[in-house]
């Protein structure tokens, strides 16, 4: 029974059912177009793309954010496509257009949030180095907490459309929010130790600017080591 339980946990943790359902759905669509599609070859190719991380190219945002592997694969594809322009200064609108070439329905709200975080400390102009903006964007994609009750109740008033100066919460509420966030965790989060380290200086004040907190996390290299991801160099 224990062996069976471990196998079931593996299937759940690796999202096998999710990918099987997606593969079958896409197979049916392909066969509607061409009845000669070879089922075995189609499924083989599908899972090769999943393994290689190329399966998120031109997929919708709902699919991309469905699993951690999808999010990491999406970010890897973005970096691979645009790395040659890593030193270029870029506007928020230009960055949005580049992202939407890979994910056509990618929401501008996350891009706005990433842009505000990137501007919060190092930059105060319309153009930001691509690598700096991408590193912040990477953070917001990976650590978006979908459906968290704590997030909705505490931070709902801080719309991504608001300015950096308005994204402020009281330190008391921030301290109360952190354990609630982990209690309602529905996706990956930074380790508690990493979070405490990055918040240490900020909680000395009576209020905390959330973008300053995000910025501290983004540039804390241990965060990326925890995930086993390569740190994106910044200019």
Automatic annotation (TrEMBL):
It is found in: Cytoplasm, Cytoskeleton, Microtubule organizing center, Centrosome, Centriolar satellite. InterPro entries: CSTPP1. The keyword Secreted does not apply. The keyword Phosphoprotein applies. GO terms for cellular component: centriolar satellite; microtubule. Coiled coil: none annotated. It comes from the Eukaryota. Its main location: cytoplasm. Keywords: Cytoplasm, Cytoskeleton, Microtubule, Phosphoprotein. Regulator of the tubulin polyglutamylase complex (TPGC) that controls cytoskeletal organization, nuclear shape, and cilium disassembly by balancing microtubule and actin assembly. Regulates the assembly and stability of the TPGC and thereby modulates polyglutamylation of the microtubule, which antagonizes MAP4 binding. Belongs to the CSTPP1 family. This is Centriolar satellite-associated tubulin polyglutamylase complex regulator 1. It comes from Paragonimus skrjabini miyazakii. The lineage of its organism: Eukaryota, Metazoa, Spiralia, Lophotrochozoa, Platyhelminthes.
């Amino acid at each position: 029974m224990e062996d069976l339980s471990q196998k079931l946990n593996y299937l759940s943790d690796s999202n096998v059912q999710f990918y099987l359902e997606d593969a079958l759905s896409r197979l049916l669509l392909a066969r509607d177009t061409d009845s000669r599609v070879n089922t075995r070859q189609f499924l083989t190719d599908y899972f090769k793309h999943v393994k290689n991380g190329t399966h998120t190219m031109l997929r919708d945002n709902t699919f991309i954010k469905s699993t951690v592997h999808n999010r990491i694969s999406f970010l890897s594809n973005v970096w691979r496509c645009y790395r040659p322009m890593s030193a270029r200064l870029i506007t928020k609108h230009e960055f949005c257009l580049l992202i939407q070439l890979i994910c056509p329905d990618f929401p501008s709200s996350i891009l706005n949030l990433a842009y505000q975080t990137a501007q919060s400390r190092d930059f105060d102009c319309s153009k930001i180095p691509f690598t700096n903006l991408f590193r912040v964007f990477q953070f917001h994609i990976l650590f978006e907490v979908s459906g968290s009750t704590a997030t909705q109740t505490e931070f709902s008033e801080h719309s991504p459309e608001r300015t950096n100066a308005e994204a402020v919460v009281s330190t008391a509420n921030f301290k109360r929010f952190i354990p609630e966030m982990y209690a309602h965790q529905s996706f990956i989060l930074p380790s508690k130790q990493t979070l405490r380290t990055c918040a240490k200086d900020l909680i000395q004040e009576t209020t905390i600017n959330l973008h300053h907190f995000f910025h501290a996390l983004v540039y804390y290299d241990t965060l990326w080591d925890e995930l086993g991801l390569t740190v994106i160099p910044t200019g």
